[in-house]
Write a structure and sequence with these properties.
The chain has about 375 residues and is an alpha/beta fold. It has two domains: about 10-30 and about 275-375, Alpha-Beta Complex (Aspartate Aminotransferase, domain 1); about 35-275, Type I PLP-dependent aspartate aminotransferase-like (Major domain) (Aspartate Aminotransferase, domain 2), CATH 3.40.640. About 40% of the residues lie in helices and about 15% in strands. The protein has 15 helices and 13 strands. The strands form three sheets. Strands 2-8-7-6-5-3-4 form a seven-stranded mixed β-sheet, sandwiched between helices. Helix 7 links the parallel strand 5 and strand 6 (about 185-190). Helix 2 runs antiparallel to helix 11 (about 260-275), helix 4 crosses helix 9 and helix 12 (about 275-295) packs parallel to helix 15. The protein is globular and about 65 Å long.
């Protein structure tokens, strides 16, 4: 079992260890790689390679397994989205590539359904594009998307989720509309990797589809983009390899991946398709059940295990509190736990609900989580 105190470099720097009950959160480091992934990265560290060749071969390997024309490893899903739009504006034209982020005179608009608004839509525009939101906060129609596509449209962007309702035009219809007007579609599918048969279907669904590799066990600083050879090549021309090969003309130089990370992505990708996911989910659920049992005797506290918002994640434990009886709100409890040592991170929804996700909970950390929750859920009155 992991020790309570920080070790090694964390202890030297005075950094508290975190009990992660929130899942693949960027602020917590995103993911913990397996021994096999770590070994692959250490092996890659032993020898230098031509990174352009490594990216090409790794992309071809992944593409063949997802049934797409091409794939490319990036420094996260956000980088894939930014570079993908850049490529859709410039193609492989070196002068257009050098012009970014000044996108004047280029096709530089990205059409996006307003009901899909979310914080990461910013990633579609950081290379110079302008987001054109269509529809209302409540609804978008196929006709509105078609009308918004014009001579300056570079792409249509889409956020892939399992559970969109009819307020959003579905992806297959969006692709049909866009392609009828000669415009490509780019998809943020960051965590859409499970069930396993769904992963390749999503990867094949549009011209470019972007994933966060941290969700299948790669380092959090890695991502993956799949799709049309034409648009993957244009993305690569705008990326850090394009910068090195073009004499510094592309703007993707900051979005660099190293050979160790590429090896990690390939290994984690393979492992994702060979993992016993039933066992993985049951193991995580058992941790949540242990936490649930430990809280049953607490007054003013009710618990329930329900489906998480991501199919790749196990069930989530929801803790509902009587704020009057306990004399404290859920956000205040979350803040108190975060301020401890070790720092315990979990979600708070409204004034009376806490959410515990066991997907990235390190083996043995449930004991610290239980002790922290029992202290924090004690009545204050």
């Amino acid at each position: 079992m992991a020790g309570l105190e920080s070790t090694g470099v964390y202890r030297k720097l005075g950094v508290r260890r975190v009990i992660n009950a929130m899942g693949n959160r960027t602020l917590l480091g995103g993911s913990s790689v397996s021994d096999r992934v770590q070994e692959a990265m250490e092996e890659a560290n032993q020898h230098y390679v031509d990174v352009e060749e490594l990216l090409e071969k790794a992309g071809a390997y992944i593409a063949s397994r997802l049934g797409v024309e091409a794939a490319y490893i990036t420094s996260g899903c956000a980088a894939a989205m930014a570079l993908g739009v850049a490529g859709m504006m410039t193609g492989t034209d070196p002068d257009k590539i050098a012009q970014l982020p000044n996108a004047s005179g280029l096709k530089n608009e990205v059409v996006f359904q307003r009901p899909q608004r979310y914080i990461y839509q910013r990633c579609f525009t950081i290379t110079g594009a302008t987001l054109v939101e269509v529809g209302s906060d409540e609804r978008c129609t196929a006709a509105e998307i078609a009308e918004a596509i014009g001579p300056t449209t570079a792409a249509v962007a889409y956020l892939a989720l399992h559970d969109w309702d009819d307020s959003v035009v579905p992806l297959d219809k969006v692709v049909e509309i866009a392609h009828n007007k000669g415009v490509p579609v780019i998809v943020d599918a960051a965590n859409q990797i499970f069930p396993l048969d769904y992963f390749p279907r999503v990867a094949q669904s549009a011209d470019l589809v972007c994933f966060g590799a941290k969700y299948f066990g790669s380092p959090q600083s890695t991502g993956l983009v799949c799709g049309s050879r034409k648009y993957v090549d244009a993305l690569a021309a705008n990326a850090f390899i394009g910068f090195e090969q073009s004499g510094g003309r592309s703007m993707g130089r900051p979005m660099k991946v190293d050979r160790q990370e590429i090896a990690g992505v390939v290994t984690a990708f393979d492992d994702w398709f060979t993992t016993n996911h039933e066992e993985r989910l049951l193991t995580c659920e058992a941790k949540m059940e242990a936490v649930q049992r430990s809280l049953q005797d607490l007054p003013g506290v009710k618990t329930a295990i329900g489906a998480s918002r991501l199919p790749a994640w196990p069930s989530t434990l929801r803790i509902t509190i009587d704020t009057q009886e306990l004399g404290i709100t859920a956000p205040d409890i979350a803040k108190e736990l975060m301020g401890g040592d070790p720092s315990i991170w979990l979600g708070a929804r409204g004034d009376d609900t806490l959410g515990v996700n066991g997907n990235e909970l390190v083996e043995g950390d449930e004991e610290f989580l239980i002790a922290g929750l029992r202290r924090a859920l004690s009545p204050r009155n």
